[in-house]
Design brief:
Length: about 350
């Protein structure tokens, strides 16, 4: 890929499964073995500027995201160890993706410069070539490259939906994604109304109470509180530096009372209706069967079982109440028994007299 490809170096590195070009001194290249590298076995990463004498060495990287390890000071640079006060800056210093400067930021040692309005970027300060990748881990070879170097083409747009049904006041989300090897500069949705046939262009700066999305960060479109007037065909389109592309249309329609589910005609005999008495006769067998299936034995209900089961209660108040009841019952029984014992002598004498014939 040429140096003037118009793509940021860090975006190019962070692509997935892209094999682009071969090592040379005149352009960017990316080997897709980056995707298969095991960061746990990488001891160091070199960033070369022109030749091996001008290099930045980062030891023990914890990630393969280039911006994360280049935002810290390199342990080794150009046959020297950088000053602890040097600044390594990512994406915040004017149009530099990466810049290495001294403490006062008035001396520049190395950098990667990018400007969207110029075809000769990115540019590498003190660079004769691109960015190289070195590690001490044996990476298994890749049998084939999944993607070749991208051409100078507009974005490839993907819209998985073809039609959407909604009810009044629903929030409707129309999904749109894309594949683009170059920065996407603009996203918009074209709305062709079913009501009046008028086309409206929906962008990120339109009424946010009605629409959200339609941006380079979130290209999908959400229609808030959709109504009948929102029916129609929606098309997602976007552009990069090589032109506009348009996805497939998505037709959305609102469900009305007449479009709701109705009885199939096949279930209505000869297209005629029945009286209540006729329906009672026709459905009697089905109703009896249904009644039998739904009938429940009351004795199996939890409410019935609960009424006939004594549940344990370990509370102290319950124990005290139970003991009090037992004591009361025992006292009553003792009183009755005591009264019987007091009169037993008299009853015994009377019974004896009767037996002896004495009054």
């Amino acid at each position: 890929m040429d140096n003037g490809s118009g793509i940021r170096v860090m975006d190019f590195w962070n692509m997935e499964q892209v094999h682009c070009g071969t090592h040379s001194t005149s352009g960017l290249y990316r080997h897709d073995y980056i995707d298969y590298a095991d960061v746990s076995c990488i001891s160091f990463i070199y960033v070369f500027y022109g030749d091996t004498a001008r290099s930045l060495k980062y030891t023990n990287p914890t990630t393969l995201k280039i911006e994360e390890w280049m935002s810290r000071a390199a342990e080794y640079t150009w046959n020297d160890i950088p000053q602890s006060t040097d600044n390594f800056i990512i994406n915040t210093f004017y149009d530099y993706e990466f810049i290495w400067m001294n403490e006062r930021n008035d001396t520049l040692y190395a950098g990667m410069y990018y400007a969207e309005d110029n075809d000769n970027y990115p540019q590498f300060v003190y660079s004769k070539g691109g960015v190289n990748f070195t590690d001490s881990c044996n990476i298994s070879s890749v049998n084939q490259h999944l993607h070749e170097c991208p051409g100078k083409v507009p974005p490839i747009i993907q819209t998985p939906q073809t039609s959407v049904l909604f009810t009044s006041r629903d929030n409707v989300t129309l999904v749109c994604s894309y594949l683009s090897y170059y920065p996407v500069l603009d996203v918009r949705w074209n709305f062709d109304s079913s009501e009046n046939g008028v086309r409206m262009i929906i962008t990120n700066d339109i009424d946010h109470t009605k629409y959200s999305g339609s941006s380079t960060q979130a290209p999908s479109l959400t229609i808030h509180a959709a109504e009948l007037s929102d029916q129609g065909n929606y098309t997602c389109s976007m552009k990069n530096r090589y032109g506009w592309a348009e996805g497939s249309g998505i037709q959305i329609n609102m469900l009305t009372d007449t479009s709701l589910c109705q009885c199939p005609c096949s279930q209505v005999k000869n297209g005629s209706s029945y009286t209540a008495d006729e329906l009672q006769v026709l459905l009697s067998s089905s109703l009896k069967k249904l009644e039998k299936e739904l009938k429940v034995d009351k004795k199996l209900l939890s409410s019935y079982v609960s009424k006939h089961v004594s549940a344990s209660d370990d509370r102290q108040s319950s124990r005290s109440l139970g003991i009090g009841g037992i004591v009361c019952l025992c006292l009553i029984a003792a009183a009755i028994l005591g009264m019987d014992l007091m009169s037993i002598k008299r009853h015994t004498a009377t019974a004896k007299g009767i037996c002896l014939g004495r009054p």
